[in-house]
Amino acid sequence: MDVSPLTILLVGSGGREHALAWKIASSPLLKRMVAAPGNPGIATLCEVRDVKVDDVPGMTALAREIAADLVVVGPEVAVAAGLADALEAAGIPCFGPSAAAGQLESSKAFTKAFCDRHGLPTGRYQVCDDVASAKAALAAFTPPYVIKADGLAAGKGVVIAEDRGAAEAAIEETLGGRFGAAGARVVIEEFLEGEIGSLFAICDGHTVMAFGDAQDHKRAFDGEIGPNTGGMGTYSPAPVFTDELIAQTMERLAAPAFAGVASEGHPYRGVLFVELMATREGPKLVEFNVRFGDPECQVLMLRLESDLVPYLWACANGRLAELPTPVWRDEAAVCVVMAADGYPDSPLGGSIIRGAEQDFGEQAHVFHAGTKRDADGTLRAAGGRVLNACASGANLRQAVDRAYACVDRIDWPGGFHRRDIGWRAL
Ligand code: GLY
């Protein structure tokens, strides 16, 4: 593909975006990168501008000001706010779907109905918008009960309730306003038995390509206990993904999703994150996300041998058919999330972090997620998930050991992390 070096605007401020910035920065096709709002880690790689991810006019104006050839959208909030739509109107290529296609993440009720319309395999479900009907709906399900807030809740709006009492409490909390407008409706779902996995697929509106796999740990504490989080760690590749499961997932879930949104007038340009359960009947959809996972993206970027930029550009410009399938290093990669005490419910901000920016060696990287830097250079926690200690290795054991070696060199008494990332695969 004949592409001149590009000016890229990267939208977002998390560990996912730091990993994307790190990979993009290594591309010979990069002329200039600006990130907004970025974070202190991203600021070591490129210029950052203080524009909020959901400030669509501000972000579009910034893209115009820097004459961006490509905007890369990290977080779902920017998708749901309609950034890709505004950029399309401004004639600026964007890696990231329209708000309409983005409903595959921004509304779980939309997605379930979409699966019905287009024949995608997923669990039985019921959508309710009041407590009485939601409690009554539980009768049609067996424990454990899966209760989800309909809208965007940063990965925290899902409860797997072991009994009826816990399910009713989750319904009351969700519909009672715990997640604001995102909890105006609940989706009650059948619990799917099997092994969970995350497959990524990219699309330019027509051509579809698989783009790596990973597995995450959603619970806050070791042994898969504690509250659900946005993800406490990931590893890639995920052993659940045989070639057969990847092919089935592409054929039964990813390709029909891209075709479905296109047939409804919303061609998809970007990455689709397919979270699936590998059941005895084959892959069934758990949920879609309309962006790279965080922290799934971090391990994908460590394993991606190919230059990322041509894929981002091709998706935004309808040119994906011109590219070969991406090359992945035959290595394992691991990400250990370091979170602020109190995460996910009430993370404590402001604690001092030391040693996060030392040289961790060739195959290890510590990406910033929720950090801020004082004028004197002091690094502090400024979010729930704060740092991502990532490493690759010849096998998962080596990658895990390297990632924890990074964790152990960081002096941050105000945070916690899990010590068992990757246990299922080890
Ligand atoms: N790690 C899950 C997510 O990005 O939604």
Outline:
globular
- Helical stretch tally: 12
Task: Output the CATH homologous superfamily of the largest domain.
Answer: ATP-grasp fold, B domain
CA distance, first residue to last residue: 40 Å
- In the CATH classification, which architecture of the largest domain applies? 2-Layer Sandwich
The number of domains is 4
List bound small molecules.
glycine
What does the largest sheet look like? 9 strands, antiparallel
Task: Assign the CATH class of the largest domain.
Answer: Alpha Beta
- Assign a percent range to the helix content: 25-40%
Poorly predicted ranges: none
The number of E-state strands comes to 23
In terms of DSSP E residues, the strand content is 25-35%
Quick check: average pLDDT? Answer: 96
- Which fold name fills CATH's third level, the topology of the largest domain? D-amino Acid Aminotransferase, Chain A, domain 1
Instruction: Look at the helices and sheets and give the structural class.
Output: alpha+beta
Global Rg: 20 Å
Task: Characterise this structure.
By secondary structure, the protein is of the alpha+beta class. It has 12 helices and 23 strands. It has 4 domains: 7-95, Rossmann fold, CATH 3.40.50; 124-189, Dna Ligase, domain 1 (2-Layer Sandwich), CATH 3.30.1490.20; 193-322, ATP-grasp fold, B domain (D-amino Acid Aminotransferase, Chain A, domain 1, 2-Layer Sandwich), CATH 3.30.470; 332-416, Phosphoribosylglycinamide synthetase, C-terminal domain (Glycinamide Ribonucleotide Synthetase, Chain A, domain 4, Alpha-Beta Complex). 29% of the residues lie in helices and 29% in strands. Strands 10, 11, 14, 15, 16, 17, 19, 22 and 23 form a 9-stranded antiparallel beta sheet that branches. Strands 3-2-1-4-5 form a 5-stranded parallel beta sheet, sandwiched between helices. A hairpin with an 8-residue loop joins β7 and β8. α1 packs parallel to α10. The model has no long low-confidence stretch (mean pLDDT 96). Bound molecules: glycine. Residues 155, 216, 230-231, 289, 293-294, 296 line the site of glycine (GLY). The site of glycine has 8 residues, from loops.
